[in-house]
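Quarterly update from the structural biology core.
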Amino acid sequence: MKSKVIKILPWGMMIVLVGVILFTLFGQSFTGIAMEKKKITLRISYWGESEAPGLGDWIKETVNLYNKQHPEVDIIPEVSLLAIESIYPHFKAGIAAGDPPDLHMLWGGVLGLEEAWAGNVTPISDYWTEEDLSRIFSGTRGEGYWNGKQWMVPLYLDPWLAAINKNVWAKSGLDPDNPPTEWSEFVTALEKIKAAGFIPWAVGIKDGYYGGWFPSLIQYQYFDSFTDLHRAVVGEVKLTDPSQSGWWYAIQELRDKGLFNDDATSLTVAEANDLFFQGNVGFVLGVQPLIANYIKQMGEDVVGVMIAPSPGQGKLKGYLPVPSGAELVLPINAKHKKIAADFMKFANQNSSLHSFNYGTGYLWSTDSFSVIRLHIVGNAPALSDNLSYRSFQISGGSSFPQVAQQHHPGEHHRHG
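Predicted structure, tokenized:
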């Protein structure tokens, strides 16, 4: 019996030895087979390149960062840019066909929540903790919140500013470093720009979006609180009251004096804003990333930034509305909702946010980071190095306002 053991033992040792050699030579391959990554095609449909070129590239870059920190998966991004008129038809068609993208862009507020009410959206709060949700910039979280759940997450902040062409203002006999803050002075400035042969204010209303831009910048300053608008919507006050209708008369004054471009009704918002690049427009409204692009393309010596004046005399006069731009949602029948929600959470981290701001000019709608440089002002000496969404500035040059200093939840944004 003992001799059999002696004969068998060397064979057993040889088998073990061969196994060790094979593992040493090919162990990585065997391990790779055992831990093969799960490949997932994450489909993301978005809009925003017209405001901030580079947004799609940032999404792809962030997917790559996510893959590096999550070795168990290999996300392959399938990123689709939507035309602005296709956002909702594309979303509804995907839901109806049972094959929507994993993340889809919608507008915040009622336009997005309508899809939640229709049962077409899965709440992001099904996958995010309250701590995760608390990082959403407080002023914008409400745009996607309903019935105790968070249905949408803002993709970026959208401060609504205005750009002026300093050369046009100077040639019109105006001081571009001291733009007007009162309505009467503003109208006078536009009249001088027109008299000098330039377009005073480039507007495009063909697609209807300026119907939201005008009141967001001008009507806002008639209010003591934004709930003043809610009161009109629910019928507590009349929409014909001066605080609700005054901005209409302000726009009529500009129209009657010919202070808009003659083809305003034939142009979309984007087409009208593109006129600014031609160098013969004095004033144009725009969200921050769009104005950042003006500065990048035309230079800080040409582009000044101001906040649109208003005849309103409410307590919010001089305040700047900072809504969300686009919102991201999880379609109800998307294939990879859990991984999509986790990717969205990851995108709130510092490593991704810095490149987001530098690449697009957007401000991410989160307060999860404390230091960032705002690309909108380039390397201007007045730029602060210590910025956050609880206390941030946008500054750079004498005509660029400081915005939202010492902002806290529930407060508004005021230029200094």
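Residues 404 and 413 are 4 Å apart (CA to CA).
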